[in-house]
Amino acid sequence: MDNKEASEAINALSSPPSSADTPISTSQNMDNQETSEAIDALSLAASSSNPSISTSQMSLEEKFKIVRSIGEECIQEDELMNLLAKKPQPVCYDGFEPSGRMHIAQGVLKALNVNKLTSAGCKVKIWIADWFAQLNNKMGGDLKKIEVVGQYLIEIWKAVGMNLEGGHVEFLWSSKEINSRAHEYWPLVMDVARRNKLPRILRCCQIMGRSEQDELTAAQIFYPCMQCADIFFLKADICQLGMDQRKVNVLAREYCDDIRRKNKPIILSHHMLPGLQEGQEKMSKSDPSSSIYMEDEEADVNLKIKKAFCPPKVVEKNPCLEYIKYIVLPWFNEFKIERSAENGADKTYKNFEELAADYESGNLHPADLKPALSKAINKILQPVRDHFKNDQKAKDLMKRVKSFKVTR
């Protein structure tokens, strides 16, 4: 590739997409009850229909509420509103390293988020970051094993109910896409690297699950430059990733300043579910006691939740309550407690605020909450168990993944 072609590839980024000009401001005082009802209506069962049908009936504000609900943080809300107003099908980027068995934070939460996005008219590009997993030494850097893990993860999302109909969700393997369009990709990566000092890149190492203090390989230092380039390579309007990926998404917005690109990728950073044990800020695949895996048996789920940290009358940093708030309630639109009349009788919660108030007051005890949580999680996971027992391809993939040694 000559210098002229490389320059054109970079300069193309400075041309604004056709989606946006003048930002449309959004009200900061939307009615909480209306917002909750609009979002709660998008249970996984409800969103299994063709998203284009429901999208045509939605107002701009309804679309905004649904998309915005995914993010614990949004950078920036006015840009998001403007995008949804101007572009019929915004492109959302999500990505993952195939690095081992899948836990419910990655499996159920991602399915919920993707279904919300497609129901609001978005197209979701899920980046299967096989090369990135190799750079990060996952599965010992064995690309063939990494590919098997990636296929296994896709089978889980199919089984749990991610809406893959109608082409609104696209799985893209990084190795194949980069190789097929290398003349576009590598000039981008090189330009990102050229415009950033090493300390700035090192601050992004959190995106790999590593800190600046870790002994990093040269490949791992190169990783943030590649992930930043991915956003532009995939022509993403929205970066929909966890809060742990925030730094590299901000790097992408800063890169836009460097190249004088007007329209920056919007960042929607979703909440990070904690591990089941006290003090575990993030669910970890490397610690079985902290994670509920997507194909865990019913007895395994029951035992893990039974042993989970869940202090009476304490709402903050209580993992059991977080799973109810971010998984069970969005999935079922309710959380049902079954107990004897002497202990308060059955009760169904329609929102988290009411549940949290009862728990904090002592009206709801962990001994009643935990069995109800186990029952709800098991109901969500049962189709996944069935799929991996009855589908031979899925069964073989799981067997192979379980045989792999997980490396960090």
TrEMBL record:
GO terms for cellular component: cytoplasm; cytosol. It comes from the Eukaryota. Its main location: cytoplasm. It holds the Pfam family tRNA-synt_1b. GO terms for biological process: tyrosyl-tRNA aminoacylation. Catalyzes the attachment of tyrosine to tRNA(Tyr) in a two-step reaction: tyrosine is first activated by ATP to form Tyr-AMP and then transferred to the acceptor end of tRNA(Tyr). This is tyrosine--tRNA ligase.
